Amino acid sequence: MKLPSVCPLDCPDTCSLSVTVENARITKVAGSGANPYTASVICNKVARYYPDFVHGKSRLTRPLRRIGPRGSGRFEPIDWDTALDLVHDGFSRAIDEHGPQSVLPFNYAGPHGELAGGSMDRRFFYRMGATMLDRGPLCGGVRGTAYASLFGPAPGMPPEQAAQADLVLVWGNNVTVSNLHLMRVLKQVRAAGGRVVVIDPKRIKLAEQCDLFLQIHPGTDVVLALALAAELERRQVLDMAFINQWVAGADLYLEQARGFGVAEVEHACGLTAVQFHMLADWIARARNMATSLGNGIERGCSGGSGLRAAMALNALMGQHGRAGAGVVAKPGSAFPRTTARLHGDHLKRPGTRVFNIVDVAEKLLDETLDPPVKALMIYNHNPVATHPDQTALLRGLEREDLFIVGADVVMTDSMACCDVVLPAASHFEYADIYGAYGQTWLQRAEPVIPPVGESLPNTEIFRRLATRFGYDEPEFRDTDEALMDQAMNGADPRLEGIAPSALPTDRALDMGRRDGAPLIMCDTVLPATPSGRIELFSQDLEQRFGCGLPVYRPATPDLPFTLISPSSTKRTNATFGSHIDSLGPEQVEMHPEDAGRLGLSDGERVRVSNARGAVELVLSVTDATRPGVLYSPKGTWRQSSATGLTVNALIPADLRADIERGAVYNETFVEVRRA
Question: Which Gene3D superfamilies does this entry report, sorted A to Z (predicted)?
Fold first, then answer.
């Protein structure tokens, strides 16, 4: 039997799925045509790994209590009542001794369903008065703030519109791994005679199929973008009519840009003058230019500036106001979400402290913190596999005076640190509604199998916790159907009069239109900034971060190699890290010049290290990377390395992006030797 579903993973595409079920077990996962954008195509990892994820040996099926040292994996099964009692006792001890802010929810972006991603859980912790978490800085927050500084919360170009461009800049976006369905759009551009430019530190697969590949040095995107702005001004090809009508702060911005030119691009970015001028030529001649930005740029010290400067090129060239011209970013802002209602924001207690999620390890180890964190709940997250400075986080989680409860679908490195583990249902086992952050099609799914074992959806886990804590407000009695209706504005005409909880599961609804017209910035969509124009100088960022204009603030290397850790073809972030394909040592790619200098050979094990730790990886010698730059995919689990650590142990947590104090993954400096 084939049943419709939706992929909830942290990916911009949010694919519609067709799931084959036999005897209440998932035997095959394929794409479906319900979502016209994803159009029956899905990535190999979802097709290959989901059945094992749901039914494999790592699946959690009963509540567990720790009976051995933290991280030992020694647990015993318990029933749900006992588990809820233990959670109540652990949280209550912390609250009685140190107040409710001694409890911390530690969650991020596991399932992207509106309900599973954040609904009853937020209400529970808001009602408790627990410390709140600013989650964006771990990933996406820098990019989101950079976009909003120019355009406000207005949606950017839906990806399908880029097919009408004759020049597409794919900047820091590994399309085939992290944004698969944009490939179809790019093929349409090239088939119509348009050009595709890839700007990336690694020669990704798309780079082999594009018209120009600029293998930029990590973290220098802002240099290239500012130099391009200055060069285009020198050539007198900026669209002054558009700037005068739609752009604020252009004079200040261009004054900043004039400090950068081809010499800086050659020195900092590692590009040639010929490459620079070719790109400037193409931008100057483009009829419609679309810019597609991934999350890679934000993971540098100048990440916010790089993103802002890349997006500013479209504004300076008048590349908005028509289909095919614009920035492919934030189309998910088009969804009629009513998040404050879904989360129960009215339950927040004024004055409650907020932690940056990247600071959690530091907070756990801070003996002067008042109140201290004494209880923690990890859910929708595998922080041990995803956070910078892995060893510091592990030290924090190993505190015996810290009560930790976890909820997940499978046993992860993070769940192994918990006192109590609650079995969460996979998204195939409950109903949910799905927006997206990289496209505009609204979808809903029903369960395709019953809950595996005693697992429960997040919503039910937190309903039961609310009951155990005596929270009897009406908000905690809302059904999943009611929550779906609270997740979206049911009065929005694009829902065609259908309640969100009743949306069909065999087709998606397009939110990418306003009054029947496509979303086009500076036409059907207006910049939602204080000035009502695209702001190249941000007063908000100047006040908060001293970064009103893009700036170049590189980290200072203290070791010979820069390590970058983008997305994997085997995992979506850390999801599927328990599959056998991810159990062995991960690869690290190195340029042949570096391998030859060090006397290292393809296929041998190497030790990559710095002062924070060391990880063993298998060397892949390839010219897909630049000399001096190493590439190793993110999301591995501790069992993949003989040291018990992953590349995240090497990544600094104290180095931050220029805005939002975002995590900096791609300016990690290491040395390499034979293992």
Answer: 2.40.40.20, 3.40.50.740, ADC-like domains (2.20.25.90), Dimethylsulfoxide Reductase, domain 2 (3.40.228.10), Formate dehydrogenase/DMSO reductase (3.30.2070.10)
- To which residue do tokens 């004079």 refer? 251
Give me the pLDDT at residue 584, please: 87
The DSSP annotation for 72-115 comes to S--EEE--HHHHHHHHHHHHHHHHHHH-GGGEEEEE--S--SHH
Residue 395 CA: distances (Å) to CA of 364, 375, 384, 389: 9, 15, 11, 10
CA 417, 138, 116: angle at the middle one, nearest 5?
70
pLDDT at 326: 98
Q: What is the model's pLDDT at position 86?
A: 98
Helix boundaries (H) for 286-355: 303-316, 339-343
Nearest partner of 117 among 10, 41, 222, judged by Cα? 10
Beta-bridge partner residues of 133: 355
Using 50 as the pLDDT threshold, list the residues of the chain that sit under it.
none
SS3 at position 509: strand
Core vs surface per residue 513-532: b (16+ CB within 10 A) or e: eeeeebbbbbeebebebeee
Tens-place pLDDT, residues 511-535? 998 888 999 999 999 999 999 999 9
Q: Evaluate whether 292 touches 170 at the Cβ level (below 8 Å).
A: yes
CA 204, CA 633: separation in Å to the nearest integer?
A: 13
DSSP 252-283: HHHHHHTT--HHHIIIII---HHHHHHHHHHH
- Phi, psi (deg, nearest 5) at residue 483: -65, -40
Give the pLDDT confidence score for residue 60 in this predicted structure.
98
Query: Residue type for 565, please?
Result: S
Give the integer Cα–Cα distance in Å for 529 and 154: 9
Q: How far is CA 226 from the centre of its chain?
A: 26
Within 13 Å and on the Cβ side, how many CA atoms surround 456? Answer: 19
Note the pLDDT of residue 109.
87
Please tell me the predicted confidence (pLDDT) of residue 71. Answer: 80
Model confidence pLDDT, tens digit, residues 178-190 = 899 999 999 999 9
* Identity of residue 578: S
151 CB contacts (<8 Å, ≥6 apart)?
A: 327, 330, 521, 527, 528, 529, 534
DSSP string over 401-435: T-EEEEEESB--TTGGG-SEEEEBPPGGGS-EEE-
